[in-house]
Amino acid sequence: MSGFHWVGRVAGLFDMYSQARAARLTVAAAILAGGALLAFGRVEGAIPFIVLIAASHERFFERMADRFSRRPWLLFTPALVIMAVQLAYPAPAAIDDLLRHIASGFYPGGYRDMYVYSNLPQAGLYPAFDWMAGGLGRLLQPLPALWTIQGLAWSSFVVVFLLAAHRVLPAGEDRAFWLLGALVLVVSALVVRLSLARPEIFMTVWALTALLARGRLGIALWCATGLLMGTGYWLAPLYFVTAVLLPGALRTRLACGAVLTAAWVLGWQAVTGVWPWQNLQWLWDVMRARDARFNVGENMSVINLLAMPEMLVLIVPAIWTLARRGGNGWLLALAVFYALSNQARYVGMIAPLLALYILSALTETRLPWRPPTRFVALIASMVLTVDAMTYVPRLDQLPRLGLPDGAVMLSGFNSAAFAAPFFNPGTVRLSPPMEVGAAEPWVQQIIGDLHDGRFDCKSVEGRAFTHLVEFSLRGSPPPCLELVETDGGWRLWKIRGQGAATTE
Known about the structure:
This protein is mainly alpha-helical and 504 residues long.
């Protein structure tokens, strides 16, 4: 028997369209195994698919093209499954603000009981969000609450973005391919921000629903929901400008945004007891008081993020679309509005707005692709999704150090300052707070020295600090420090002879 005959026999075992029971079982097992490997980010996971396709490529491409034509939703399934699997395992985590939002619910006085030696605002900047996150933490315990909020941020964004994209994109034969490409690009740009699940992500989701509102009832519901959600975020009015995306006359949309903003200002004063501009004054004061050695990522230039490959893939077509004077110009105008802030935090609005603007300009959605090319595009979306999801922050990145009840902790301005109250809810007090500039100047000096690898025992004499968490000290430890525990590169030290001083 010739070698070619044996090759044909072996290839036949992987024929997905064979009626033989054994062959079909082999195919099913190979697909499951390969899919599992691919979902967990291993390139080897693609090997079973390559073998299967090679064995029956002609019929495979024809059948797949027919299925995608009749059931366009199948195109999204691989990318969405990969997102879900890789978001769940290894265990995800936020690495900053969401941790302290949840932890705040375990302190009777909120942040004032959590932080020491800090200049905090007169009232909370996220009252409703703190109430919701803290309450969920008490109900479910901190970790389940964290994962619940992260899951809500991811699922709500993906669903609303796809619905909004479906709304602005003209109907056509290959609409699903365009939607899939837009989703993968936007998620790739926002994967970290979605996982951090800050209040601004939920405001972003709400803002995009302006494209879904229909009729007076829909507009009224959008405004009422925005006003309610705005009680959880002190910068909510920056998202009210998306009222221009509502249906109806421009005058009506502008009036809607203005009324919404005025109602929020009054509502904010009623809920918190302070006017919004008092929060702005506090922010201005702490930014001026911030040690020049510290840089806050949220305030870095948005240019750094706009230069990412995923963003460039959105920016270049957006410029080309503008040159052709196509699309919904309000989407582009809003993207430019948020970019003018020059703050990294608003890339969460810029990316989806640019993608929606490009989609709104398409007049022909049919792609001149043969079935093999379409399948390659699907595989590419899977590979890009796998790559993007590797940037999800993970639980093992956080220091999980156990501190005794009543401990007063000092740390650098890093994830330890957020993780300590999260893993020791209601039992530990600490500095610095969420904004390093709000820490007292002498605390900032110690933190700056820590970042430089130094710690002076005299700097905490007469202070209430009992413990220190760091990963940057160099050389022999100072005499006042006693090593208690380590977690990866993180070290927990007991500060000898401390703890009796006041924290005021």
